[in-house]
Design brief:
- The chain is an all-alpha fold.
- It folds into two domains: 9-61 and 160-215, no CATH class; 71-125, no CATH class.
- It is built from twelve helices and two strands.
- The protein has a two-stranded parallel ribbon.
- Helix 1 crosses helix 2 (22-35), helix 2 (22-35) runs parallel beside helix 9 and helix 3 crosses helix 12 (202-215).
- The radius of gyration is 19 Å and the shape is globular.
């Protein structure tokens, strides 16, 4: 085999026929893959693309979806945070957070990953964005420090939703957790656990990986 391996906009279009910015996305992926040596092996690149596709609903959602339409679902997802019983005052009353993503983010992410309290607004400001959902003030700060060192990402977190920073932040996370080595070992479940925090979605992510494996092929393999 020879490197580097490159993703084309045509390949991305096969993975999601509704993409409108396939050229920009392919350029960003290839730039990031080169920066973090992901382009040196087909499996590394396929893992990276499959995981990022899954995280972003096939490159259509670049910010975490925090809109919940039923209080029951909130209690299911965060049983230690929400209740349907107003008398349980140690918990937040779930109906108050329906269809209010900003209020929800400020509560559930308060005091985590370098965020301030709920009143600080950090939970919403530093909600999950990008190809791997960079989340929390501390993680935005670490990314900014390592890649730029000028504070402009922390000052304008929405930049993580743009193609280059969406994938660079994912590549930064990938490199930090030595996922090239995990991909080389075919450790897809471990990669999923690091990105997602659990292995619950491995079956669905494997479906995406199989699709990516069929599309990302190169004549030099």
């Amino acid at each position: 085999m020879s490197a580097p391996y490159l993703v084309s906009s045509a390949q991305l279009q096969l993975l999601n026929p509704h993409l409108r910015n396939g050229i920009d996305l392919a350029q960003a992926i290839n730039q990031v893959a080169a920066k973090f040596h992901i382009d040196q092996d087909p499996r590394r690149l396929r893992y990276f693309v499959a995981q990022s596709l899954f995280e972003t609903t096939s490159y259509t959602q670049w910010s975490e979806n925090l809109v919940y339409t039923t209080p029951e679902r909130l209690v299911t997802v965060w049983p230690d945070r929400f209740t349907l019983d107003k008398t349980r005052t140690q918990y937040a009353y779930a109906p108050d957070y329906i269809n209010n993503a900003q209020k929800l983010a400020n509560l559930v992410y308060a005091g985590r990953n370098g965020n301030g309290d709920a009143a600080s607004g950090d939970g919403w400001k530093f909600r999950g964005r990008g190809a791997f959902h960079l989340t929390g003030r501390a993680n935005y700060q670490e990314y900014d420090d390592e890649i730029y060192g000028d504070g402009h990402i922390v000052a304008n977190p929405d930049l993580i939703m743009q193609p280059l920073d969406a994938f660079t932040s994912a590549g930064f996370f990938w490199n930090k957790h030595q996922m090239n080595s995990l991909a080389d070992s075919d450790a897809f479940t471990q990669v999923t656990k690091i990105i997602n925090g659990s292995t619950d979605t491995v079956p669905q992510r494997l479906v995406m990986l199989n699709k990516v494996n069929a599309v990302l092929t190169w004549s030099n393999q």
